[in-house]
């Protein structure tokens, strides 16, 4: 697993993209071919951290949200129910520390259980954010998760990574390496070219 992650990181110019066992086979190819093949494999296997917040879990929206990501064709490679401590919530929102709304974010995230997930697939970060909708649910389009279920910014149901860097940080914060599985859906050939 580590060799595959390393190969993906090299193909991505040293950035921490994520792994796929198929990259090992690509590494056996010639240098130029291997780099192109690895880059394509890694792009297809991007991972994103998605979290259903306490308002989403308490409103029984977990199944609906998981279904939307599954129906889009993404692969769930990590999931757990967590009752975050204030310390974990603070580390999750570390980029907002010092801002006036930071204490409220930490208090809310640590107020109940969340469902922490890692989803994998092509452009899952960008597409996942589009599926989630704008931070302010009232500005979110109908058909997005926040547009369909949210009303206020403070109770906007879900969090999704906004970049590969934040995905890597958030995944490592919420999951151990042994909690992420590597597998491919049998319907992958019907989703990807």
**Main beta sheet, described?**
4 strands, antiparallel
Placed side by side, the strands forming the largest sheet appear as 2-3-1-4
CATH architecture verdict of the largest domain:
2-Layer Sandwich
Strand content: 5-15%
Number of strands: 4
Radius of gyration: 17 Å
Please trace the helix and strand order, writing H or E for each element: HHHEHHEHHEHHEHH
Number of helices: 11
CATH topology of the largest domain: Alpha-Beta Plaits
The domain count comes to 2
Provide a descriptive summary of the structure in words:
The protein is globular. It has 193 residues and is α+β, with helices and mostly antiparallel strands. The chain has a four-stranded antiparallel beta sheet with strand order 2-3-1-4. It has eleven helices and four strands, in the order H-H-H-E-H-H-E-H-H-E-H-H-E-H-H. It has two domains: 2-44, no CATH class; 47-191, Nucleoside diphosphate kinase-like domain (Alpha-Beta Plaits), CATH 3.30.70.141. Helix 6 (86-92) crosses helix 7 (102-109). The protein has helices at 2-11, 22-27, 31-44, 54-58, 62-72, 86-92, 102-109, 124-132, 145-149, 164-174, 188-191, and strands at 47-52, 75-82, 114-120, 158-160. ATP binds at residues 53, 101, 129, 135, 146, 156.
């Amino acid at each position: 697993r580590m060799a595959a992650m390393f190969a993906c990181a090299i193909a991505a110019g040293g950035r921490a993209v994520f792994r796929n066992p198929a990259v090992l086979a690509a590494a056996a190819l010639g240098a130029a071919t291997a780099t192109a093949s690895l880059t394509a494999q890694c792009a297809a296997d991007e991972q994103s951290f998605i979290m259903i917040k306490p308002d989403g879990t308490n409103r029984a929206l977990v199944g609906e949200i998981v279904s939307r990501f599954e129906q889009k064709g993404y692969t769930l490679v990590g999931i757990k129910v967590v009752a975050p401590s204030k310390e974990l919530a603070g580390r999750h929102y570390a980029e907002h520390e010092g801002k006036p709304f930071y204490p409220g974010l930490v208090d809310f995230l640590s107020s109940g259980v969340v469902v922490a997930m890692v989803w994998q697939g092509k452009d899952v970060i960008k597409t996942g954010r589009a599926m989630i909708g704008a931070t302010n649910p009232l500005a979110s389009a109908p058909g997005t998760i926040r547009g369909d279920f949210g009303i206020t910014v403070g109770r906007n149901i879900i969090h999704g990574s906004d970049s590969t860097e934040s995905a890597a940080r958030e995944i490592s914060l919420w999951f151990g390496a042994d909690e992420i599985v590597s597998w491919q859906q049998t319907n992958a050939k019907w989703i990807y070219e």
